[in-house]
Write a sequence for this structure.
């Protein structure tokens, strides 16, 4: 005699690229309250990344791109000493030091 045991069914999580029906998408989405943004487009799941903060990400990123842009001609002509000096100057700024302190605090 085989005894039927009731097993708790676990609901699978949503993953980017899953192909689901609207019903299954809604069921999984409701089971994941920590998920902020997901969409079902033509049966394919798209999970959106969390928006980034301008002060902690956007501005330092913009500064880095600016430093690299100043060194584009040096990069193209393979003048690595110039590239490294531009990056070193950027790393010495107070903005970079503050950014690194914030990262260290988040990592604790």
């Amino acid at each position: 005699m085989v005894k039927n045991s009731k097993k708790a069914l676990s609901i699978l999580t949503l993953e980017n690229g899953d192909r689901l029906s609207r019903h299954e998408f809604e069921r999984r989405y409701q089971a994941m309250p920590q998920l902020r943004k997901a969409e079902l487009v033509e049966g394919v799941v798209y999970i959106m990344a969390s928006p980034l903060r301008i002060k902690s990400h956007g501005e330092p990123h913009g500064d880095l791109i600016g430093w690299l842009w100043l060194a584009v001609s040096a990069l193209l002509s393979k003048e690595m000493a110039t590239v490294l000096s531009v990056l070193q100057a950027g790393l010495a700024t107070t903005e970079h030091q503050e950014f690194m302190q914030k990262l260290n605090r988040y990592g604790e």
